[in-house]
Amino acid sequence: MRRRTPVIAAVSLLTLGLTALTAPPALAAEVTHSIADVQGDGAATPLAGQTVTIEGVVTGDYRSSTTSGYRGFYLQTFGADETPGRSDGIFVYANTAEPAISLGDLVRVTGAASEFQGQTQVSATTVAAYELIDDAVGFPAPVVLPNNVVGAAREAYEGMLVTPEAAYLSSSHQLFNFGSLWLGVGALPVKATETTDAGEAAGAIAAANRASRLLVDDGYSIQVSNSAHVGGQPYFDAGNVVRNGDRFVSPAAGMILGYGFDDWRLQPQRPLSDASPATYAALEPTWQTANPRTTAPEEVGGDLSVGAFNVFNYFTTFGGDARGAANAEEFAIQRSKIVSAITSLDADVVALMEIENSDKLGEEPDEALGDLVGALNAASAPGTWAFVPTPASLLADGVETDFITNAIIYKTAAATPVGASFADVDETVWDIAREPIAQTFEAEGKTFTVVANHFKSKSRPSGSTAPEPADLQGFFNAERVEQATRLATFIDGITADAEKGANVIALGDFNAYAEEDPAQVLTAAGLVDLVPNKTDEYTYTFDGELGSLDHAFATAEFAESVTGVDVWNINSPEWSDRGYEFAATEAGTPFRSSDHDPIKVGFSSTAAPVDIDIVSVNDFHGRLEAAPPIAGAAVLGGMVNSYREQNPNTVFVGAGDFIGASTFTSFIQKDEPTIDALNEIGLETSAFGNHEFDLGRADVDDRILPLADWDYLSANLYDRTTNEPAYQEYDLKEFGDVTVGFIGAMTEELPSLVSPDGIASLEVRPVVPEVNRVADQLSDGDEENGEADVIVLLVHEGAATTDISSATDASAFGSIVTGSNANVDAIVSGHTHLAYNHNVPIAGTDRTRPVLSSGQYGEKFGHMALSVDPTTGDLLSLSAEILPLAGAYTPDPEVAAIVADAVAVAKVLGAVKVGDITADFNRAKQTAAGSENRGGESTLSNFVADVHLWATRSAEPDLAIMNPGGLRADLKFASSGAGDPDGNVTFAEAAAVQPFANTLVTLDLTGAQLKKVLEEQWQPAGSSRPFLKLGLSEGVEYTYDPTAAAGSHITSVTINGEPLDAAASYTVAANSFLAAGGDNFLTLGQGTNKADSGKIDLQSMVDYFVANPTATPDYAQRAVGVKVTAEEPLEAGDSVTLALSSLLFSNGEPTAPTVFVSAGDVQLGSAAIDPAIVDTTDEVGRATVTVVIPEGTPAGTLELTVTVPGNGTSVIVPLEVTSSAAPITSVTAPSITGNARVGATLTATPGTWSVEAPSLAYQWNRGGVAIEGATGTTYVVTPADAGASLTVTVTASKDGYADGVATSAARTVQKITTSTTGSLSRHLSFGAVPVDFSIRVQAGSGVEPVGAVKIYDNGREIKTVELAAGDSGRTTVALGTLGRGVHLITARFVGNDQLAASTSFPNLYLRF
Question: What sequence ranges are listed for the domain Endonuclease/exonuclease/phosphatase (predicted)?
Fold first, then answer.
């Protein structure tokens, strides 16, 4: 129950006396502002200094008695958030007031609004300022704090219970003193100068990292060491391992987002410490392990390895100038951890940093180093490890060294020192750092030198209060640059020494991140920074940001032998209290043995394998712009850049169709922007695709090849004149001593995929023998004709499905995969737009080869990783993967600029409005997401056929046909963005549908040929797509049996309601590709009287929309699958089963649940429709209906009507029926009496019949079509009948006889009379004055006149206008200025099917 109680110290009523009759201020106060009002929209309250009364639930309690230091409460509005964008939480400062309120209570508070250290608050410092409204109402549900809400944007959540969308522990360095943990939001932040050169861009990254930082606090504003703090830090303990990178999990109620001490902080609902009651554990966050410990570094390969390890002030001396452990007990733990770490690191040679310089302390040189080696040998076996003595040059008098030094240790069984250790001694450089120490080794016949390094730290100079340098590189950067420069010279001296050789690796703590000046000095000197180049790991964390201060810089020669690099994250992610000197330490484990993570580098004593990355794309089709899942060219370029940056041995190849069938941006500019983009990306070689030949060979030879910087390949395209290969057959790419050969091949279906006339000079030969011929040539040992260690086939042919069976069957593609010789190591394919990655056994070997396709449009890409022995040329490993591309890589700016320029041009050309649609016009789809099904009927294909029929109407075609492959985009109803409202169709969208610029052709076929064209939808055996569904213009319908033998599928065809006449001639409209026999529709190529209309398919669609501004999809199927199962001969009473298919579309069109089968008006059966998609076919929408032939059915053809009311589909299935019953025959025909005019009543006379007293049924017809509901003996003529012919059909029935049907002679209904009047704007003028003529046409029976009106001057036609629906029969025509003299102006309405013509009286006009 809701109640209101003043919050007053508990006293008796008697003690209150009369004052109890007067409420304290808070009790009397009403709410003046919501919490959101106080918070406002900005960083500060808009009500500063004003007294406000607010109401909310107590979500946080830090009152004075808790000793938290905050001395107040958090309140949050109770109930639904009615002020999105403004915070509903706030801090209430109570000072020492102790109101009787608790967490979860609903209270009202009066106080002054203000800001304190960046946080909005209300100051209410007396008990009287608080009023309990209701106790224990609970807490508002925590709000998700989105990852992208950072910095000042978090003001909208200040003071509220929140739970971060995704946050990860980034640092625990403030846990011991402030009880705080740092979080990375979304991902762990990386130091700006780790990835980016110091400067503006790095500054932006640093600022973004700072803005995203989020702290988990303990509810105290005082340090843990403060005497007022109860207990220690609350979050970590020795028994539970939590590491940087582990995911933060909020408590169930969330945590409160507060701001203080210049950071956004998640506060628990009460102050927490390790002394808090057990019940407070529910207020603590938990951690989901996302960065688990590992017991050893990752495998780095090779037969040798080197490592680097900062041993964290390993001193055997205690006190004085010694660093590290304070006593023997601590040292024992430290040593156990260091020994465990180095042992598990398992490197053959290890460079050490921060080990005691014993000589500097007056001890024996290398005393501490010897101690460490002794401990390592004790943990393994005597003699396992040895150390490199400190170079004599560092022990000489006058050399200034530090109390810590560098060192090198090694496994004696793995490496042997060559000569003495040596160092670079130059106290003008190394006076504030540790001199680099070097040792040359010999191992497994390989000579290499290891240099241990430790540059000057970034720490502020002692006593300095200077701010951090603005360039983000820390203090002493100039000195580190000087040290890097000196180190590069030192390494040059090593490589110049023939006894030491060129294999040098410098390891250690360089106190510089990867893109800082010192690191750049070393890489500019030709050294390879292996850590960022070979891993995505980091060695250090500082202020919650990851980065690598530790590096392994190798000479190019050494880097070539590197087989792997790992940063073993045993230290930087760990809680510092795991170190040797704290209670949570874990003796004998490697974890937190140091603050830097060790590095391990694997390398080979022999020539290292050559690792090659092959990235591939197929069927890109000019998809320049990003439209997920399409990545766009700039991201494609970013992907290639990324691989090349990681591995210079990267090659970008393709399997054809980079251009052609492109989106508008590329298409309208003849794909030249796509070619420019691919040139910029650096496409190196590709097979031809069929779409490269869309405009014929001449376009390829004269335009495409000169524009493309890459090599186009095909081994099976021959010049018919020379009988030689028409194009380059293969391309060789060299990677050091390894050569990869790429062979190109084209689908054998090319002549059916492009206009045959355009490639008349080319012969397409079988793929397999031509590919094998070239592969054998590249493998025969003859350098003169080209040799390759690895062979990759780039073939523009592909699998029909993503199942591996489609890559190994008897299809054209399966034959390529299984028939290619064993020396073809991999196959990159395309053409069918499917993404797959198979490992297919190579016949006669124990090997497999990857067979892959990346799908379509740059949605994905293929990646193959090869490792090849450079000495033998043997392929050591080969793996393949298909990876998503959209959004996965940083866009290439140069490519992005090319795309932007292309878009700007296309935007101007493509923004023109063409027309409107009322819903989507889609292509058919398959079950695979986004996969087009060219075997399915589609609303788009049928619509385009309708457009082609309309566009060629001057040739009076009977029908139009459209091929599914000619449609490359859907027409979508939904807006694509600003300026493109729903339903709008632009020129660009229309162009995307038909991007091939085909012309429209008409030709004549016989009915038999037309049926054969429909049969050719079932493609020849082995075709990549077994079935291609033709789009048909409205009025063409057919049924087919999907189970029939080839050439016998089509069971019936009607054109405009009439059965197809096999002997008759029909005029067909089709695009020029189809008309030439493309897509294996060879019969179309045999048509006669071919006439090219000269109309481009795209322009025809534009013209169509001009004439028909709005288009609506037709959801009726124009083809229906029907398989009839029945015992013949059929008689009345027999059962017939119809297996129906193709009753529905497949791409989101309206579905219909039921199909009905009827005979005449009698419904015989129905069935539910299965909407499941059937890939590669048109069988979507299947149902089986069993019906019984009605009793009394006469012999002859019984027409069963199959209808799907839900989408308008209706087809006739004729059945031949025999009957023993005698039919009723008409003796005298029915007739119609009465006046055939609108409004009159007509009467049907039934005629006479061959039997007495039959039952009679009537059906009135208009133009041969039954009039709905007109089934009586009389019929009242309606305006819709005007000008039409009416008949009546009489059906006579009688038991024992077959029904008789007869139809009367037609009666033509008079047209409705009209009257036309005209009025001139003037009848007399002197001089040239414009004249207007207003016309009105009126018709009887309430019919609105529509149609043409002709205007005459003295009997000569001068204008024609159209009256449209909605004009109400009125229009005004501008006649302009008429000549001098007398003019008699008349208007004549020419009439239409319903309305009679009429002419106005002449209107006199005189001009002087």
Answer: 314-596
Tokens of 842: 């190579």
- Maximal CA-CA distance, the chain: 142
- Cα–Cα distance, 1212 to 644 (Å, whole number): 63
Indicate if 1314-1407 has the same CATH topology as 1222-1308: yes
Q: How many Å apart are CA 149 and CA 143, to the nearest integer?
A: 12
pLDDT band at 951 (very low <50, low <70, confident <90, very high): very high
β partners of residue 1166: 1156
Beta carbons within 8 Å of 485's beta carbon, 6+ residues apart: 521
Q: What's the mean pLDDT in 740-746?
A: 98
Which fold would CATH assign to domain 911-1111?
A: 5'-nucleotidase;  domain 2 (3.90.780)
Strand order in the sheet with 1331-1339: 1314-1320, 1331-1339, 1370-1376
Q: Do 103 and 58 meet the contact criterion of CB atoms below 8 Å apart?
A: yes
Burial class from Cβ neighbours inside 10 Å (0-12, 13-18, 19+) for residue 818 reads: middle
In this predicted structure, the answer to whether residue 915 has a pLDDT above a threshold of 90 is yes
Angle at 185 between CA 181 and CA 187, to 5 degrees: 105
Query: Which class in CATH covers the domain with range 1222-1308?
Result: mainly beta
Which contiguous run of DSSP H or E holds residue 943? helix 939-951
Buried b (16+ CB within 10 A) or exposed e, 36-73: bbbbbeeeebebeeebbbbbbbbbbbbbeeebbbbbbb
What pLDDT does 1000 receive?
86
Residue 459 has a CB neighbour count (10 Å cut-off) of 11
CA distance 832 to 729: 22
Q: Which fold has domain 304-461+468-603?
A: Deoxyribonuclease I; Chain A (3.60.10)
Domain extents for the chain?
Answer: 5-288, 304-461+468-603, 610-897, 911-1111, 1119-1208, 1222-1308, 1314-1407
Res 1220: pLDDT: 62
Structure tokens at 1300: 């008789």
DSSP string, 848-870: EEEEEEE-STTSEEEEEEEEE-T
Helix axes 767-777, 812-819, angle to 10 degrees: 20
* DSSP structural state of residue 925: B
d(CA 228, CA 70): 12
Q: Are 941 and 962 in contact (CB under 8 A)?
A: yes
Q: Which CATH architecture has domain 1314-1407?
A: Sandwich (2.60)
Indicate if the pLDDT at residue 28 is higher than 70.
Answer: no
Kindly state the percentage of the chain with pLDDT values over 90: 86
Side chain identity at 409, as an amino acid letter?
A: I
Name the residue among 834, 855, 1032, 994 with its Cα closest to residue 914.
994
Query: What whole-number distance in Å separates Cα of residue 568 and Cα of residue 538?
Result: 9
- Six token digits for residue 753: 């995929």
Does the CA dihedral 807-811-816-818 come out positive or negative? positive
Tokens of 275: 């002394």
- As a whole number of Å, the end-to-end CA separation of the chain is 97
Element (DSSP H or E) covering residue 330: helix 328-345
| Closest to 1305 in 3D by CA, of 1248, 1225, 1232 | 1232
Alpha-carbon distances of 276 from 5, 76, 799, rounded to whole Å = 30, 24, 66
Residue in the block written with tokens 């009988």: 723
Separation of alpha carbons 1151 and 1078, rounded Å: 33
Residue 1 confidence class, pLDDT cut points 50, 70, 90 = very low
Q: Which helix (H) or strand (E) holds 449?
A: strand 446-454
For 1094-1108, what is each residue's pLDDT tens digit?
Answer: 677 887 898 899 899
- Place 997 in a pLDDT band, splitting at 50, 70 and 90: low
The tens digit of pLDDT for each residue in 1140-1164 reads 999 999 999 999 999 999 998 899 9
Q: At what angle do helices 893-910 and 672-681 cross, to 10 degrees?
A: 170
Reported pTM? 0.54
